[in-house]
């Protein structure tokens, strides 16, 4: 795999952190975003300790600020960086809170903005850069963008499963198809939809999940790497507009 310049939003979250670390250790140039300056510096420190020669850049940016695109483009220009790959992964868990069984207007708008509008705006901004190198966009979605949640997984379904999350992830999958047409043939655009990833769940939740999933387990953090590696490889050069589902078979029944 030739060295690529990869831009990953939400680089300090569960999925983002794993992708950032993986691609740096594979000798790619990685730029990532984080709302937290402290988490940004910590991730760079951790990756550099693991792989001292790694090329990693962090940008402390809030996608809910009006000037976020210009801030990112200025950073890239100052560092003489032009991404080949954009991985849209940023989220804000605050928008998945549920009050009295209802998702508020604020949380609907916030989740949709970060999950659909920001990926669109970033994709177009990178595409329209002078002498753009952009050739590959990977959007991070979820199995809940493919199927609705199973109430039997939850102890209190209406208070634990936010409706705006799945609806937004479904919209992101459709954005992928739209951009695959609009940016062809120069840029490939695909989605990866992950199943549940271990880390925040207790043993009872994991057992219920296992009973509902064909492979009988939640994803491990390292399982997020394979789909991204594939979509970065020459083996996927004829794949665009697709949703690669990595969910242990959850969505087949």
TrEMBL record:
Q: What lineage does UniProt assign to this protein's organism?
A: Bacteria, Bacillati, Bacillota, Bacilli, Bacillales
The species is Aquibacillus albus
* Keyword hit for Oxidoreductase: yes
One Pfam family hit: adh_short_C2
**Protein's UniProt keywords contain Calcium:** no
State what protein this is by name: NAD(P)-dependent dehydrogenase (Short-subunit alcohol dehydrogenase family)
Record's superkingdom? Bacteria
Annotated keywords: NADP, Oxidoreductase
Q: Which Gene3D superfamilies match?
A: NAD(P)-binding Rossmann-like Domain
Which family does the record claim for this protein? Belongs to the short-chain dehydrogenases/reductases (SDR) family.
Which InterPro entries does the UniProt entry name for this protein? Answer: NAD(P)-bd_dom_sf, SDR_fam, Sec_Metab_Biosynth_SDR
């Amino acid at each position: 795999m030739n060295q690529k310049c990869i831009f990953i939003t939400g680089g300090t979250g569960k999925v983002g952190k794993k992708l950032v670390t993986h691609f740096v250790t594979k000798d790619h140039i990685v730029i990532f975003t984080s709302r937290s300056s402290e988490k940004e510096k910590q991730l760079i420190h951790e990756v550099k300790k693991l792989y001292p020669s790694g090329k990693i850049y962090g940008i402390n940016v809030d996608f809910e600020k009006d000037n976020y695109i210009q801030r990112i483009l200025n950073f890239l220009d100052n560092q003489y960086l032009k991404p080949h790959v954009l991985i849209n992964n940023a989220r804000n868990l605050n928008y998945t809170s549920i009050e009295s069984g209802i998702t508020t207007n604020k949380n609907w708008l916030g989740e949709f903005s970060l999950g659909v509008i920001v990926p669109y705006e970033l994709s177009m901004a990178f595409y329209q850069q002078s002498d753009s190198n952009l050739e590959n966009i990977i959007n991070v979605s979820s199995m809940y963008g493919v199927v609705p949640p199973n109430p039997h997984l939850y102890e209190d379904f209406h208070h634990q499963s936010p409706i705006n999350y799945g609806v937004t992830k479904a919209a992101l999958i459709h954005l992928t198809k739209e951009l695959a047409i609009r940016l062809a043939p120069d840029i490939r655009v695909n989605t990866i939809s992950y199943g549940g990833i271990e880390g925040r769940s207790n043993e009872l939740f994991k057992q219920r999940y296992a009973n509902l999933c064909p492979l009988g387990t939640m994803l491990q953090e390292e399982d997020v790497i394979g789909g991204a590696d594939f979509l970065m490889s020459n083996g996927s050069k004829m794949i665009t507009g697709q949703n690669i589902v990595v969910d242990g078979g959850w969505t087949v029944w």
